[in-house]
Amino acid sequence: MGELQEHEDSVAAVQFWGPSLITGSSDGQVCIWRCSDYELLLKFRGHKASVTCLAVHPSGRMMASAGRDQRIQLWDLTRGTSAAHLSVLEAVEALEWSPDGQSIAALSPRDLVAVEVASNSVASFKDPASAGFMRVSFTAVAWLSSKVLALGDGRGQVQIFEKEGEALTEVCKVPRDGNVTGRIKALIKVNARLMVGLSTGLVEVWSLGDLKAGSFTLLRVVDTKSRLTCMTVWAPGQGSQVLEDKHPKGKRTSGGEKPVKKEQVKQSGKPGKKKPQRS
Q: For 112, phi and psi rounded to 5 degrees?
């Protein structure tokens, strides 16, 4: 369909949200594009190093980005401005909003941090063995409810934590077969199911019962016969929310950058076209 030419370095994160595409790059910039005509709506400059991950708030009015500058940045998408920022000890590699949108989980290889946005209270968990030679990295995180988190690691273990104030307390573990090996590469919660993707290529589907009692039921295991690196789930009937375009052309963003014109979006192999053809 075409190319979007704006970033000055490798694109490190992409996410569709309604009719918009959000991109983050090693140049520290985050761009929001309107997919109907590929116009650049907003460009944020909030990181001094590579952007590692993005997460749009369930309301579609706010977005979080994390970078290798050990910084989590919150953006107000309705105004196109920076809302807040938080410094962390390690570069965050995954961000996940809670279902009610009140908290955001930030995952680094050795730390899991859950931040309540309104009160700015921070709850964290660090692997007690993280300082040793045999440390095991955290690899995936997912909210199971507004207060309960699932955390996956490099041993193939999935731990369940409950957030209470400024504490993350482990309540149980997902039962594992002793023969199962590999790193947890993805955790996705859909309705009352938890999808677990392993680096060995296995995809597990678990039924969630009483989380505090640890009543999990393994419903199915699928072997993809490939080295799994990432995973997403499409659930029929789940609608996506929309980012509203409230920014007139030419309006300056918080980073002092003026959105580019459509002429900067070139169709692959057809110079001179202002925008790609849509199928």
A: -120, 125
The pTM of the full predicted model, rounded to 2 decimals, is 0.75
pLDDT digits over 2-55, tens only? 788 888 888 888 888 888 888 988 888 888 998 888 899 988 887 888 889 999
Are 206 and 218 in contact, with CB atoms under 8 Å apart?
yes
Which residues partner with 37 through β-bridges?
A: none
For residue 267, what are the β-bridge partners?
Answer: 270
* d(C-alpha 58, C-alpha 55), whole Å: 9
The set of residues, in sequence order, having a beta carbon less than 8 Å from that of 139 and lying 6+ positions away, is 109, 152, 153, 154, 183, 184, 185
Per-residue tokens: 250: 């030419």
Residues 4/260, Cβ–Cβ less than 8 Å:
no
Question: Average of pLDDT values for 74-84?
Answer: 82
Q: How far apart (Å, rounded) are the C-alpha atoms in residues 139 and 107? A: 8
Q: CA-CA distance, 202 to 67, in Å (whole number)? A: 30
Q: How far apart are CA 52 and CA 95, in angstroms?
A: 9
Instruction: Give every CB contact of residue 232 below 8 A, 6+ residues apart in sequence.
Output: 186, 188
Output DSSP code: residue 268. T
The tens digit of pLDDT for each residue in 191-232 reads: 889 999 999 999 999 998 877 667 889 999 999 999 988 888
Long-range contacts of 260-264 (CB under 8 A, 24+ apart): 260/6, 260/40, 262/37, 262/38, 262/39, 264/5, 264/6, 264/40
